[in-house]
Specification:
The chain has 7 helices and 11 strands. It is of the alpha+beta class. The protein binds iron/sulfur cluster (SF4) and FE2/S2 (inorganic) cluster.
């Protein structure tokens, strides 16, 4: 049987199993810890933004830890928004805000903190990416692996190899959809989607006309031997329901 532990988070008693991460226990109990790199779809993607820091008091000692990767090992008191955390979080937001001055989300998330005193930090022009890695994770999880982080220091960025169109990219937009700061640009007409320097033909549902995805992403989803669908999921379900209704009428 697992060891159950009771901790307090912001004064609220929470029960958890030994080894559970603070962030997860807080979330389960409705206590919101800010994050820029956690996403429910990618359980193991953690510890990239450090915005989730919290203060832990245990056995008379207090320390600041990264809550999404800090396992609870015994009774303790956790504070997610203490003065010390607010000050340290402000530094993290300031660093991210200068790394990606065009990322409006940073300004929104830090608006209640004292953000003065960081004027000497140097900003990277026109940058929106905070290097949280979620887009790379999303792409890898599909098995496409078309993008990765490249270069170092202020030059570090997410890109396709050599910034060339990638033959592995299927134009599915998973990267752009998961990006918290809207850093991944793409454009779309009725027939073509352009992302990561490559144009993709769009497939439309033969019944309702809605975009079903790029030809490459639909092919990727059904596999090399699967039959390409001609209608979208919604129309397929509607058609199935109608067929079932018609069958029932005759029984
Ligand atoms: S492009 Fe977006 S999702 Fe990818 S690392 Fe940058 S901020 Fe994160
Ligand atoms: S949520 Fe990003 S480091 Fe914990």
């Amino acid at each position: 049987m697992s060891d159950m532990i009771t901790v307090t988070i912001d004064g609220i008693e929470c029960t958890c199993e030994k080894g559970e991460y603070i962030y997860d226990v807080a979330k389960r109990n409705g206590i919101k810890i800010p994050t820029l790199c956690r996403h429910d779809a990618f359980e193991d993607h953690r510890a990239c933004c450090r915005i989730c820091i919290v203060e832990v008091e245990q056995r008379g000692r207090t320390k600041v830890v990264t809550s999404c990767v800090y396992p609870i090992d015994g009774e303790c008191e956790i504070r997610t928004n203490s003065e010390r955390i607010q000050e340290e979080r402000a530094v993290l937001y300031a660093l991210l805000g200068h790394r990606a001055p065009e990322a409006e989300l940073i300004g929104k998330m830090s608006r209640r903190l004292d953000m003065s005193g960081f004027e000497r930090l140097v900003s990277i022009d026109n940058e929106k990416c905070i290097l949280c890695g979620l887009c790379v994770q999303a792409c890898n999880s599909l098995g496409t692996g078309a993008i990765s982080t490249v270069l170092r220091g202020t030059e570090k960025k997410v890109a396709t190899p050599y910034d060339e169109p990638s033959k592995f990219c299927v134009g599915c937009l998973s990267c752009a959809n998961v990006c918290p700061t809207g850093a991944i640009e793409y454009s779309q007409t009725d027939t073509i989607r352009t992302i990561w320097h490559r144009d993709f033909e769009l497939l439309h549902c033969a019944e309702c006309g809605e975009v079903m995805g790029t030809a490459e992403s639909v092919r990727h989803a059904v596999g090399p031997d699967g039959e390409l669908p001609t209608i979208c999921d919604a129309c397929r379900k509607k058609r199935l329901a109608n067929e079932m209704m018609a069958t029932y009428r005759y029984v």
